[in-house]
């Protein structure tokens, strides 16, 4: 199902099934269904053409017609789903099995038999009504045809993007501004000034890079302060939570009970804490002067050595604060560098463009007038067009004169609309669904994909096609087009300006209804299809008609949403993460949500699921992670359509092997090896995450590990293996031979690999992108083989130093790890040395360091060099000192050596230590 085509993509197959299936319909109705199916196919084609035309260019009649057809398709699908649910052979019999007495079964069957004619009459009436409505709308609209535009094919993640982390893509041209602010905040020549509080306000239009600059300054000087915090402020912030978050970040090692404090007590607590302490705090994106006034009350009176960096797009707020830094657009030369990086993946490859393409790219650069967000967004469109001059010129001409004349919100919205309208229609829908999430929210990729699937946005067209893999390709394409930003491998976020755009479109087209403290009601005349509640009181729900709502997503700070589940008739998505469902009646009517596909109960304190959950025969996703459910009703394991299951129980429930459609399985807190082998029967499994419980006996540890390996050997389609094993057992995974499909492996336990297994090589694992393992022994040859893995972009490689059998003096040679972006090396003694040409795309390096062990091997550390200057893209260095034998003076000496290497590096990477 797509945004502009409504429910038609999922409705049409159901109509075809009604017309050809063995449903006992009224005489002549099948012919009318076939006519309706053909008519709606034409309507779908027309709606897809409309989706390619900017809304402001559509005739008002087409807008009205398209909206009417979308709404009609939703209602039609809801009716057919109800009918097919009742007529599905064995469906009601399954429900009857819940009754304990045979008499109840008999009565139920009799009632169902008597109800069948009534159901058939009702569906016949509704189908004929829809048919007549479609004909009427067709007659009102005199034409369908609109110039079509080509759609883009679904792609994997563009490999160039791994070379362009947010830092490499967005820090172009920022050095001068960063250094200016660093000097203003540190003032190293004035000791008195350093003891006084300072505030800097970064102001600029959305898209100019305020947050990026603040983060760059923060990273540069954070190590000079004892305490630090980085806080993002939304348009309607919860100030109590904001102050709690600041205190938590500042006082990570201290235990304070913040929940019992009100706002003013938190302000007092923060003010007292900052007194006479060297601290740096970033307050990102202030929207209202009243919010700043409250924050200001938490600051000591101009002494204490604190530094505050704030950002806002509102100049009036900054004027009242003082210390204003006005953001400037990028210079033409830096704009060119960023543009080439986005189009070609390399700032120095402009010569690869022929003369005509170089000319039009220069024109595009001028149109973007140095706005980084525009420069990042528009070239992504150019890259998706291939190297066709005519297509590039079409895009250039469609930009207009917006940003050239005025840097305002509406014109940036027009720039982003170009990217939006260039999306295939199915991706438009997936992008708009992101408007359901609050500002600055970290969105879990898996959660988002399964929500898309539940709504019908992901439609498998081939037998055996994976919903998860297709959903991931949608996600990757949105990332490739810069419409979403990766936080890490499992989370993304939406830029504020993109969120503003999709919320605007969603509101205009009645796609998502958002209710929060400032908007707590809906007009009774509005049809709500998707409802997002942002910390709202439960009373607002009385204003809403629930009978047509398909999604309810609640973002709560631990409150009970008090939803009347029985009143939601066609609900497909119910996400209550972080809500308080400890009340036993919270899920009383869950079994009535027979259309439900997605049920999110993670972190909800819910203690049990009702037996009636077995009624949810279409359920695809069940998430009860970190809940208090320790025993599952057996009816859960009758849910044959379940594709994704997250549970938190001491043992794998018996019967889980019946869920043969599962693609994703997360098992947490496992301590029973007898049932851990059951997931091995789930042959469609792509993702397996298991957390083994701590405190097991040695024999049980061995049994758990061996059972897990037996399970893995049977999973031939597995792509992601994530094991958190709080058990110390040597080499259990040595016997496993991973399939070629493996893309990610994380094993957080000591020495589960005794050494590099033979299958961990570039010819076998061509798609492995993340490797996070401990090994007991590692040789130079092993490191060289790992360095040739073609898709690896994240590496966390550790050895168990207590049982160390590592060859000293390991080196990373030229051309090794060509795609690696992040690297963490643990307990290597001495640290690995990097040669010229190694890890050309690495931006983040983390490693452990032992001064005592270094002295044992080399006699001194003063002349030792890691070769950090050879890591040409390096931006960040994190050093850990986990050894008790290292004194404070030892650590300071080591840091002095490492800082010297960082200072002579052309990128001047930031460096900090973790004790």
TrEMBL record:
<dbReference type="InterPro" id="IPR055414">
    <property type="entry name" value="LRR_R13L4/SHOC2-like"/>
</dbReference>
<dbReference type="GO" id="GO:0042742">
    <property type="term" value="P:defense response to bacterium"/>
</dbReference>
<dbReference type="InterPro" id="IPR044974">
    <property type="entry name" value="Disease_R_plants"/>
</dbReference>
<dbReference type="InterPro" id="IPR036388">
    <property type="entry name" value="WH-like_DNA-bd_sf"/>
</dbReference>
<dbReference type="Pfam" id="PF00931">
    <property type="entry name" value="NB-ARC"/>
</dbReference>
<dbReference type="Pfam" id="PF23559">
    <property type="entry name" value="WHD_DRP"/>
</dbReference>
<keyword id="KW-0547">Nucleotide-binding</keyword>
<dbReference type="InterPro" id="IPR002182">
    <property type="entry name" value="NB-ARC"/>
</dbReference>
<keyword id="KW-0677">Repeat</keyword>
<dbReference type="Pfam" id="PF18052">
    <property type="entry name" value="Rx_N"/>
</dbReference>
<feature type="domain" description="Disease resistance protein winged helix">
    <location>
        <begin position="436"/>
        <end position="502"/>
    </location>
</feature>
<feature type="domain" description="Disease resistance R13L4/SHOC-2-like LRR">
    <location>
        <begin position="549"/>
        <end position="911"/>
    </location>
</feature>
<dbReference type="InterPro" id="IPR042197">
    <property type="entry name" value="Apaf_helical"/>
</dbReference>
<comment type="similarity">
    <text>Belongs to the disease resistance NB-LRR family.</text>
</comment>
<dbReference type="GO" id="GO:0009626">
    <property type="term" value="P:plant-type hypersensitive response"/>
</dbReference>
<dbReference type="GO" id="GO:0043531">
    <property type="term" value="F:ADP binding"/>
</dbReference>
<protein>
    <submittedName>
        <fullName>Uncharacterized protein</fullName>
    </submittedName>
</protein>
<dbReference type="Pfam" id="PF23598">
    <property type="entry name" value="LRR_14"/>
</dbReference>
<feature type="domain" description="NB-ARC">
    <location>
        <begin position="182"/>
        <end position="340"/>
    </location>
</feature>
<dbReference type="GO" id="GO:0002758">
    <property type="term" value="P:innate immune response-activating signaling pathway"/>
</dbReference>
<dbReference type="InterPro" id="IPR038005">
    <property type="entry name" value="RX-like_CC"/>
</dbReference>
<dbReference type="InterPro" id="IPR041118">
    <property type="entry name" value="Rx_N"/>
</dbReference>
<dbReference type="InterPro" id="IPR027417">
    <property type="entry name" value="P-loop_NTPase"/>
</dbReference>
<keyword id="KW-0175">Coiled coil</keyword>
<dbReference type="InterPro" id="IPR058922">
    <property type="entry name" value="WHD_DRP"/>
</dbReference>
<feature type="domain" description="Disease resistance N-terminal">
    <location>
        <begin position="8"/>
        <end position="91"/>
    </location>
</feature>
<keyword id="KW-0611">Plant defense</keyword>
<dbReference type="InterPro" id="IPR032675">
    <property type="entry name" value="LRR_dom_sf"/>
</dbReference>
<keyword id="KW-0433">Leucine-rich repeat</keyword>
